[in-house]
Amino acid sequence: EESRAVDADVGSSLGDGAISAAALAKEVAKRRNFAIISHPDAGKTTLTEKLLLYGGAIHEAGAVKARRDARHATSDWMELEKQRGISITSTALVFESKGYQITLLDTPGHQDFGEDTYRTLAAADNAVMLVDAGKGLEPQTRKLFEVCRMRKLPIFTFINKMDRPALEPLELLDQIEREFGLSTYPVNWPIGSGDRFVGVYYRPRQQVHLFEKGKKHGSQEASVRVLPWGDPSLEDIIDRDLFQQLQEEIELLEELTPPLDMSKIYSGDLSPVYFGSAMNNFGVELFLESFLGYAVQPGSHKSDVGEVEPEYPHFTGFVFKLQANMDPKHRDKVAFVRVCSGQFTKGMKVQVARNGKTLTLTRPQKMFAQDRTTMETGYAGDVIGLNNPNAFCIGDTVYCGPRRTYPGIPSFSPELFSYMRNPNPSKYKQFLKGITELLGEGAVQVLYSVDTGRTDPILAAVGQLQFEVVQYRMQSEYGVETQLEPLSFSVARWVTGGWPALEKVGRIYNCATVKDQWGRPVLLFRNEWNVAQLLSEHASIGELAPYALPP
Ligand code: GDP
């Protein structure tokens, strides 16, 4: 029982733990928290590693991958991860750099495993959108972008792989503005691309940063030569055509882009853009420095009793992710809590808003990739890993002081549906236990048929891989061999008006009526067109929502 990090200690009195606003403000001001969103293969792993390198958290790139590999060697349910060659779980990386304490919420990039990524964004204050310069915007990025939009996160764009054949910088900016409706402000500007990507012009300081290819394939920091714009030697160093082009483009930029408006960055309407090559370390350091300066520090969170500021004297936070079996030796699960206010201290007593239970958090963890170190204190913006997830559900509020509740994290609109059958009646109990626990963990959403009377659960997911993970875990953790029967629906809509709204409409065609885990009506459609048709024929059904918050 040594490994139990949190002991339930029901009924003890709550410690005060309140701390002055000034002391809190100092801690909060140092903190920057962000997540990277991207399409698989855009270079997220590479960029993460290079940020750690320049942040001083690691001394030689390759460490993150090595950890990932080490995990593969020791973990068993991660076997699935290995087979698929992808990263399913996400972790928070914490490091200190340039006077900031930085939390990088690492999200899985695989397109089949979106739901975790969406939840992780609920804990983030800033997002870095990574774009492959050769491919431009890709579909996976759009969904993630929309979540950032919904949450009004400041979005920073890093256009990667400039060392390869790339689209024109202006075309890339235009795509972002046109397709995402996001204004852009290029903070640096590339000089050349592909083999001729020699550096960037850094607008805030009107400097040219020239890169020299490192010898160790980018495993160490690249050397950079910095010259002020206007330095006469630039004309000799940079190829004539590139130099002329740069001159023209800088003029154009200064003419076309309005001055940087910080309030528009904070509201998520304007994205500072950086060009670089993560693999070669080009532009990574500039990006880190500039990004840290522009990124927002942890802000207030809406609760049932109004906004809670990070300087509010009591500790509050919410669970945004439950993760199973990171360490197979302990069969443990970790609940990740985003701290919203106050000071978190080791051993403090907190309450869970959902059921009023009191817990003592005796061994919280700070995450650095796979290494876990015990965390002594935490402040708004930090992520803490708690080792007693059975006490928590996704979206739970934990707090000290007077009760307050943060709204839960929405379940994202599932697009894939499948009955899960247990063909072996003697395994009924294990089957039920497995489904219930995996549902609580947020591994998958579960719906039940209403109009067919069939009692098998319908798994609802954002990606096919979620089904595979559930099936794999049902077998390896609960000993139940299950069968999937895919349904041909692709759209789910919650009937906001509830059952009465549905009854008013009467019989509906071209969709199935199901209920969610809280018994609320959900309609499943084959396509968006059928949704539009229903709305036009039966306006009285009222609002149909693509997802719903827990009640
Ligand atoms: P992820 O799937 O987004 O995590 O992408 P990875 O970081 O694993 O990178 C995908 C591939 O792109 C790998 O082969 C990287 O070596 C490569 N890559 C990443 N950054 C760059 C870059 O700046 N230039 C080039 N040429 N390749 C890169």
UniProtKB/TrEMBL annotation:
Descriptive protein name: Uncharacterized protein
Originating species: Sphagnum jensenii
Top-level taxonomy: Eukaryota, Viridiplantae, Streptophyta, Embryophyta, Bryophyta
